[in-house]
Amino acid sequence: MTSSSALPEQAGRTCHDVINPFHSAHYFAPEFPAEMAKIGLENKHASYFASRGAAMGAVGPGTIAATFYNFRYDLIAEHVPHVWSVTTPETVLAARLRAADATLRRLLGDEAVASPEMAEAAELALRAAEGCSRQARPLYAAQADLPVPDAPHLAYWHAATLLREHRGDGHLMALMDAELDGLEAVVTHAATERGMNLQGALRIRGWSEEDLRAARERLRTRGFLDAEGRLTEAGVRLREDLEHMTDRLDRGPYEHLGAAGVARLTELATGFTTALVKAGAFPTELFGE
Question: How far apart are CA 198 and CA 193, in angstroms?
Fold first, then answer.
């Protein structure tokens, strides 16, 4: 294992930021609801809860709420555990993989999917995932028990899933340490103007305008938001501290891969993610202003 001093500061976060979209692109693609509809899941929320949670088995709404963290519990309970009376976790996982395959082939093209660079990215990302830990990381641990697909682009997608959920599980530890609930986490993250915009995040996660007003008031009381809903200096420090703690908890895979491997994986992942973005993988109404 390479020592952490061999890695540039935040190298793991930078690498993760360009790997994560390779996993998440299928959630926004038409292939995903089409495959879910074939197995009886017509509702987009039911499909998301089932597909991301299926590796844990036919779990109930409490487990989904605990591991997904920032969705309104009532929204989860509308669909879970009912989804498991419609289909099985094994069927959902197979449909999810078919959706990822079709999405990546459409957006990247068969040449990129079968390229040596894709195989190299898969090999590097899987090697990094060897440095992940299962302890206190339920979403990662469940995904890690799944077999690695044979096709290089799906092996890379699987590895991206492992690295995404490993960092995500650690991030929830940081949120708990900061005493931020799920909606407060959404609001403060949206205020950084990175990633999904606030209205898109609220709609997808089931929160109302009344919920938003209450969360903003709690955050203002703690000094993290100003009257206009922007981060205060304390709020900026809060988000920076959350990311630094998440970096620390997520350093294992990138230390394991080493500085040269992380740099090469970041380069390859940047190329594939850039191609996905240019192909329109992520809707502007969710990720734009």
Answer: 9
